Amino acid sequence: MDTNIQKRLEQDLKVAVSRLRQIGGAVAVDELPGAIGDNSPFADEVDEIQANESREIGFATRELLVARVNRLSAALDRLSEGEYGTCVECSEEISPARLRAMPEVQTCVRCQDRLERLGRQYEPEETEPAFDDE
């Protein structure tokens, strides 16, 4: 089973790196000097806005791909160390269905949910609620 997982991770990594290279090249073309600015070749503001939007989408896509490449590389490292499929937060086993859907995950569903909630609204776990005495 480990060889199947390794092949899947390596294939996903190869695809992500390939897409990252494609996106990187496309964004670099948009960043050439003179593309946007005082000497803009755009016919009107709408053209400029659309070009900016396209560039921003390229940047965001590149960020997501870089993060995925990093997660896939880390998953391959965990696999070689014999730690693949174990939650890095609670050390419990990550469900096989979750790993099939996203082979690069590091956390079980419960810990991922907790991390996402903390990311949106940080609340220290070991504090008492702040209530005013009346």
The number of distinct helices, counting runs of at least 4 residues, comes to: 4
Amount of beta strand:
under 5%
Mean pLDDT: 80
Total DSSP E strands: 0
Based on CA atoms alone, the radius of gyration comes out at 22 Å
The helix content is: 55-70%
Quaternary state, please?
Answer: single chain
Task: Write the SSE topology.
Layout: H1 2-30, H2 45-80, H3 96-101, H4 109-120
Helix pairs in contact: 1-2
Task: Please explain how this structure is put together.
This protein has 134 residues and is mainly alpha-helical. It has 2 domains: 84 residues; 42 residues, no CATH class. Helix 1 runs antiparallel to helix 2. The C terminus is likely disordered.
Question: Any key phrases for this structure?
Answer:
disordered C terminus; mainly alpha; 134 residues; 2 domains
